[in-house]
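Narrative of activities, Objective 1.

The group set out to show that a structural description can be obtained from nothing but a protein's sequence at a throughput compatible with the screening campaign. Below is one input-output pair from the validation batch, recorded exactly as produced.
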Amino acid sequence: MTDLEAVRAEKDEFFGSHPQSPLTLEQKQSFVGLNYFSENDDLRLEVKVDEFPAKEKFEMQTSTGDVQPYEKFGKFQFMVDGEKAELTVYQSQHGFFLPFVDSLAGAETYPAGRYLEPEPLPGGRFFVDFNVAYNPYCAYNEMWSCPITPAENRLKIAIRAGEKLFHE
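Output recorded for this entry:
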């Protein structure tokens, strides 16, 4: 079992049995695991994030109409299947946050986007592993409030890594 397979198995166990799972009791009764893309080494990246000189405050809308405070930290560019893409990294009191929507949204991935927590590395670099991209809890249950991916992080390309659309 690879490290990624172990992480996914642990997450499936949490979703299926833990009291703090985002699934309802009814969903847990038929839950057999989340849907994932196959592991994709090409989407495990070390990127240089161009930090914004002035940290712009940003209120991210949520699925329940609230807002959550963030700062725009910086942006990075990367290649996917020969196409250039760019994403903005946000920062809050909880750390770095990378919400994104790809071209598969609504068909294979959650329409409102998926999330990552990029890991800072020395020299202004970050480790971004799209294989661990996950759906927000509101993808499973409307009782959760989740940040909605800002327009600047809506990609026209497919990110075939991480969690797929949840089907009950």
